[in-house]
Amino acid sequence: MVLPCKHEQRMVRQARPTIELLTHLDRWHPDVNAPVHGTHTVVNAWRFVAAKREQEPRQLQLFQVVEQPQPLRLDAQLWRGSFNGKESTLQQLSPYVGKMKSGMASVLVQLYSQPGEVVLDPFSGSGVVPLEALLAGREAWANDLSPYAYVLTRGKMEAPASLSEALHRAEEVLAEVERMAPQVDLENVPEWVREFFHPDTLREVLAAFRILQAREDYFLMASLLGILHHVRPGFLSYPASHLVPYLRKRKYPPDRFPEMYAYRDLRSRLLAKVRRAYRRPKLSPNWPQRRFRVWKRNAMHLPIADESVDTIISSPPYFGALDYARDNRLCLWFLGCRDWKQLDASLTASRKVYLPQMERCLLEMHRVLKPGRPCVLVLGDVERDGKTHRTAEILARLAQEATEGEFTVETIYDDRIPDERRSRRRTKTTKFERILVLRKQ
Q1: Domain residues of the chain, as ranges?
Q2: Phi-psi bin for 100: left (phi > 0), alpha (psi -120 to 50), beta?
Q3: Chain center to CA of 134
Q4: Average per-residue pLDDT for the chain
Q5: The pTM is what?
């Protein structure tokens, strides 16, 4: 074998994610003229792309040369590292505490379902699994009781087919917002909400939500939620945290940083957000023909016919590890949920009701799943008060007992969570994720 020169070696280092992808494939690609495996192929691929770019600038990217390989088994190496630069940018519409990694969701969809089959996520959260299912050519069904999760999930699944269509819809809404905003009354807005925004910004935000809810435009609603609060200038609030809303006046006092407390216009920020969402959407040409359904129901009572689902892939709440309603209270208020504490008490994540409600959820999943098909649950071990709750083992036993053995445990796969993957770092709440694979007899 002829070793690559130093310049080529440097290109190979830059293409390391592609090497990992190519080494999983065992076929030829006609434009690369080499078996698609190993370092030498990547050098050839880089040479091919460079030549193409000289002939037709901006025509081709390296990842267009090969297709995503079909995983053969559960392997955490397939979703290691950050996917922020690889996943569909529609996955980044709005922050969500405790969401499943898109790389893991993609592997699970490919491993446990086939194109055209129905994939259900009864706890859809931010819609990671349903979007990956749609992108992989499956029919996606999703459900979540939280209004915030419902909007994010539906927003991703109802994304326009092109950036131009999305921008056109945004421009129409913004024109209407600018006419309505001056008449918006802030008197009935709670003080804790008002303290996050400049009054003129808040009027525009309130007008936008009223218009988007009337239009049932969930994509733009999710995009607006995604720029609601942060420190950065591209967001609408005064300096605030990104995942969980709290002001950061101690770090950024108004007298020292007056520009961070000035009016922030909605128009430029929403249009920029839409453009970011379409940087790398990964939508196929048949996106307009996609098939999906979304519900906002309690997962104990799914509006789904018996034995109509091919595969269930979901990440249920982690035994009281996260406070979903509290963490999303600002977004929930704009969506019409005025009492987040009442919603929090009704969610299955509550420790007081977790086991009895999860038993009923497991029975529902068993009811809607076709015989012989898998139910894949991503669960986290939770450490609280010096005790470790091994959620996967607890739910595996619960599923077997509740269904009288009709749910069997196929495997429990361990995946340690690096600190950089946690929503709240340097904590001991959740150290392991376990993939529980049940199969209906």
Answers
A1: 6-64, 76-146+282-440, 163-277
A2: beta
A3: 13
A4: 83
A5: 0.81
